[in-house]
Amino acid sequence: MKLIHCFGAGLVGSYVATKLAESGHQVHIYDINQNNSKFGDEKNITFHIGDVFDRDLDALGNDDMFVNMLPGDIGHRLTEKLASKGGRHIVDLSFSEKTPDMGLEEGIGIGTKVLWDVGIAPGLSNMFLAAAHKMTGGLKMAEIKVGGNPAEKKGGWNYMAPFSPRDVIAEYTRPARVVRGGIVEILPALSERHTIDIPGRGSMEAFLTDGLRSIMSTIPAEEMSEYTVRWPGHIERFIRERDTGSLDIDELIDEWRFDHTASEFTWMGVSAIDNLGNTMDWVVSDSGGDDGSSMARTTGLVTVGCIKAWIDDPEMLGPGIHAPEHLPTAVMKSIIEMMRGNGVEIIGPDISL
Question: What residues make up the domain containing 248?
Fold first, then answer.
């Protein structure tokens, strides 16, 4: 069994840590918020309260596994710090604007390996598109639509944040990088708004966000876009309050606070069209379970699957920085099957070895 250091114990972080501990691994969790320290009677978990940057991170064993689930810029700083020491295996789920492939190679320790963006999107979405590219030989179009939302439209914002609200706001304000005509272009966030129909949910709204990240350079396509999905009216209200100057970020964070008693769901559609016009579509859907919220499950199970595969095969990836699409096809298949085994609905073509 492995000693695993998990940084961040929010909705997703606590889920990942619990799943790893249930598998028999010794898990040390680090979080500044004491309210995140409730893990029942799980004997394999040790909780450390305080600012992680006050700790001697270099003193942690290089044979251990490191899982960074702190949000945004703080998460990026932590990955930089952890990766500066050689010989480490690091999984990065921070989803920071400054990604590990942006200059981290220069400060990475000898032999250190970093696997980043291992959630549902980016993460599982990357795996689907990598498989589509490999199976077809080339893509003309790739499109991702994803969102975690309350199960019913109830008024107000019609939304609660399943991860850091500040990171959600960053998605709404960061310009969206897309691929048009084979060239990376930058478009305003929240543009290209359009209505989509989700079976069993009804009419929802999709809009551009900056979620393509690594696949813009690793998976060639003529057209590539990532859209966030929300209930109608949500993003219109955000734009209106932003443009009139009435948007209060602190108030927003409070109003978007996750309600554990409310029904919610996560949905993702990934579509790929090859150069001959053939289409491949995947749909992922989950409504949460006794073990966690839908976003914790759909994101956290991808992370757990990557960690377990890496523990089973320490040489799965070579030294350096790796995105999810670099994973072996067999690992991608095992993650999908593990998610299905945990009750996550995944519909679409099988990934070929």
Answer: 124-294
Kindly state whether residues 286 and 308 are assigned to the same domain: no
Which among 63, 69, 92, 71 has a CA at the least distance from the CA of 80?
Answer: 92
| Separation CA 40–CA 38 (nearest Å) | 6
In a domain, 282, yes or no: yes
What span, in angstroms and rounded, lies between the C-alpha atoms of 56 and 30?
13
Name the burial class of residue 118, with classes exposed (0-12), middle (13-18) and buried (19+) by CB atoms within 10 angstroms of its CB.
Answer: buried
* pLDDT digit string, tens, across residues 282-318: 999 999 999 999 999 999 999 999 999 999 999 999 9
Closest listed residue to residue 133, CA positions, set 272, 322, 333? 272
Please give the biggest Cα pair distance in the chain. Answer: 55
**What pLDDT, in 10s, does the model give residues 152-191?**
998 899 999 987 788 888 899 999 999 999 999 999 999 9
Same domain, 136 and 257: yes
Rounded Cα–Cα distance for residues 350 and 282 (Å): 10
